[in-house]
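Exercise 7b. C-alpha cells:
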C-alpha cells in the first residue's frame, strides 16, 4: 500500500466534504494529530477505524486502500482482490515475526534462569539470597512461557495431521499438549481425533 497516495486521497475526500481535520477527527473519535499523520502518509487507520473513516468520507474500504475512486465495477473487483492479497501477505509476515519473537523470549528466559541457578553457586553468597535469585529466575521463566503459550495459541493455525482441518487451539490445549518444536499432539475439533498437528501461518 502507498501510504502517501492514501493520505492524499483522505485529504482530498475531506476537503471535498468541506470539513477540517479537527471536524473529521471528532466524527471518528480520534485526535486531530492522527488525521494529520494519515494525510501526510506517516500512518494508516487500524481495522477498528477504517469503517468509521470510510463512512465519514463516504467512500468504500476498497477505495481507501487503493487511494482513489473506483467508479468502474471491474476495476473495483480487481483492486479488491489485489488489496486482499496485500493484506493477507501483511498478516502472514506479522505472524512469522511474532513466532520468531516467541523463540527469542524462550531462549532469553532460559539464559536468565540458568544464570540464576549457576551463578549463585559460583560466588560465596548467603543461602537466602541464593534462594531468592533462583525464585526470580524461575518466576521469569514461568511468565515467559505463559507469554509464549499465548502467542502460540493466537498466532496462525494448527493443521490436523488426520483430516487437514485448520483451527486455533485453546490456551489449555497449548499448555498441556505434548510437542516437538511447533508440532503438537492435540485433539482436532472437527474430526475429534488426536494426532500430531503442525503449526502454520497459512489459512488454507
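Sequence design result:
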Amino acid at each position: 500500500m502507498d501510504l502517501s497516495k492514501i493520505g492524499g486521497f483522505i485529504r482530498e475526500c475531506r476537503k471535498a466534504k468541506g470539513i477540517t481535520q479537527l471536524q473529521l477527527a471528532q466524527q471518528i473519535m480520534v485526535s486531530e494529530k492522527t488525521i494529520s499523520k494519515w494525510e501526510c502518509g506517516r500512518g494508516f487507520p487500524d481495522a477498528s477505524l477504517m469503517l468509521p473513516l470510510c463512512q465519514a468520507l463516504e467512500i468504500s474500504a476498497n477505495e481507501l486502500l487503493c487511494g482513489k475512486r473506483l467508479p468502474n465495477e471491474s476495476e473495483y473487483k480487481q483492486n479488491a482482490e489485489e488489496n486482499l492479497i496485500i493484506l493477507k501477505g501483511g498478516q502472514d509476515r506479522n505472524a512469522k515475526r511474532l513466532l520468531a519473537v516467541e523463540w527469542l523470549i524462550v531462549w532469553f528466559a532460559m539464559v536468565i534462569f540458568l544464570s540464576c541457578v549457576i551463578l549463585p553457586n559460583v560466588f560465596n553468597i548467603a543461602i537466602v539470597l541464593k534462594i531468592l535469585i533462583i525464585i526470580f529466575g524461575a518466576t521469569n521463566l514461568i511468565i515467559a512461557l505463559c507469554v509464549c503459550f499465548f502467542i502460540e495459541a493466537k498466532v496462525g493455525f494448527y493443521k490436523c495431521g488426520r483430516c487437514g482441518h485448520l483451527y486455533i487451539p485453546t490456551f489449555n490445549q497449548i499448555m498441556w499438549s505434548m510437542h516437538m518444536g511447533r508440532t503438537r499432539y492435540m485433539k482436532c475439533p472437527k474430526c475429534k481425533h488426536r494426532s500430531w498437528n503442525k503449526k502454520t501461518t497459512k489459512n488454507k
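Instructor comment: The chain has a mean pLDDT of 83. Residues 54 and 60 are 6 Å apart (CA to CA).
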